[in-house]
Amino acid sequence: TGSAGARRKRAMIEYVMLTGPTSTIECAHELGRLVAGRHLVVNLIPYNKTDVRDKLSCPPVEHVEAFRLIVSSYGVMCTVRRTMGSDIAGACGQLV
Description:
Elements: E1 11-17, H1 25-35, E2 40-46, H2 61-72, E3 77-80
Parallel strand pairs: 1-2, 2-3
Helix pairs in contact: 1-2
């Protein structure tokens, strides 16, 4: 029998990765400091472009990975959501 704390589930924060001021390296450090020491998972969601005219885009894969590593360096679990469904405009961020 384990303690209830050992089985405690982590809350998840979902963070959409958009090119611009919310995906800077400094932002990664700010997010890392904000969630450090908390029982959380940060899930980075790469933005999926649609045929809707907008100015939004996703940073390069290498930048998303660097962002993830920085957030993780603060001791919090940080993952990148795998992109699926973009070929049928049904991926995260594409349903409009």
